[in-house]
Amino acid sequence: MNLLLIGFIGIIVFFVLIALRMPIAFAMAFVGFIGFSILTSFSAGMDMVVKDLFGNFSSYSLSVIAMFVWMGFLAYHSGIGTHLYIFAYKMIGHLPGGLAIATQGACAVFGAICGSNTATAATMGAIALPEMRKYKYDRSLATASIAAGGVLGVMIPPSVIFIVYGMATEQSVGKLFMAGIFPGILMMLLYMVTIFIMTSRNPELGPSGPKSSWKERIDALRGGLVEALIIFFLSIGGLFAGWFTPTEAGAVGAGGVLVISLLERRLNWEKLKKSLSDTTRTTAMIMLMIAGAIIFGRFMAISRIPFEVANWAGSLPFPPFVVLGIILAIYLVLGCFLDALALVLLTTPIFFPVVVDTLGYDPIWFGVIMVLVVAMGVITPPVGMNVYIIKGVAPDIPLEDIFKGIWPFLFALVICIILLIIFPQIATFLPDYFA
Amino acid sequence: MKYLSNMTKGISIALDRIAGIFIVLVMVLVVSNIILRAVFNSPLKGTYEVVGLFTAVAVSLGLSYCAFQNGHIAVSFILQRFPKKFQSMIIMLTDIISFIFWGLAAWNLVRYAGVMHKNGLVTATSEIPIYPFVYVIALGFFALCLVIINKRIEAIREVVTKISKSGFLEMLNSESARKETI
Asked: What is the reported pTM?
């Protein structure tokens, strides 16, 4: 049978299986194995599965995931997020919409020690939401601003999605981390402006909180901001300076949060155990998904689908940015249904050659764009992971209300993407400068 | 049956604890290596290999408890739109596929480890035998299979209990019974 046809049938079977609630990692590995076996032989297929499972699980370069995931969960359980938020709201909580604006600042700084959007959203949801409710914020604005702000966790380094993208495309994780800094800050500013405009037009959406004295503000510096900055400069700074490999940066970061939290007596035995249990669960999930994606990718590669898609896209009579636009639209649609990691892992082998080799876009820049598009996916229905997390924190607020509040933030993300397409230097400046 | 369920939970939690210890070990090893390299200019030999192998232990031993907590991400909103009975049949089917596939993978990992053992395969720098780690990965997948099958047996058991307690017709009408099969 035709190679391409088998490849396409494989993709359809994969989507049917995940629609039938088979875990995404299982479906990728299973379909990859069956497809590869049909095109080669059963024993070659099993051989490939076994070697890929062992090869990925024991890869030094993938051990970085476990380290950054642990660093994030340690930060989550140690309460650093609470102090970051207290500082941010003492600074600007008295402005209209100030608590929601402060949340964005706290999310961005928390993102500098946590590489996951869900952990960032969960942390801030638990801290910022009760405050915003206390000051009678509109519940759509309050919940949606946290769900959207959580995405800053994956744009600002460290970032699990950048690591996975870097692995899948053989790009430098360090460069990707550098590339995320300015777009992350831009995203935060756009969110802040969005909230400011909304609350200026309708002050009832976000009433002002109490004004803090400068003494209170300076006191609030300790306990969160200073610690987060020290860890960030030590871990991510060491990576940028070329002292550390990504795994080392992750281990230094996790060790740093652990030591600081123990010294400040914020972490007891129970919390430490919880942080490890969260880490093993998340790492196992991510690593199995990566292994599954690699197995699926091998099947795709011998079915020649990525090659044919790249050829076909290259022959289209459109300028590159139109083709890029189509690809981004496909991402947006898939992002509504698929988990962020699965989306990156599944689509990279197919679209990366098109965007980078055929259309000639910068691979690091495309990584940043990908995170932005994926960010839209985690806050849009029906599978908006961050929205479900906020719903978990505030079960009494209907999902519809949260999704209703998301629109202005989606608009801000679209502007962010457009700005990055017009001015790619926002992403590429730092990696180029350090190179 | 209850015994199987408790045993599965116990095994997966125990393996998860070991996985957690290995995460700590990886961190300590990497940080020690940095300090030794920076201060004494003598890095630990073979750190890269050991970190890789320890990560493999942490990941594979975490697989089963992750499945126990439904941590492997799945898309559930499509299937939710179908009748409960259809849902439970479909989940049964996909679970059987998963069970057979991962069981096969685990069994072949055991064989792979056996071949490595026979050939005396060791890591390049530190010359640590690799095969025990492959056995551990296989163990992680066997435990994953155990969790998958246990979840299904639990679901079937609950339906059977409902039937024996309330009669078949009543069971068909009972929304909660059908819900519990998912």
From this structure: 0.87
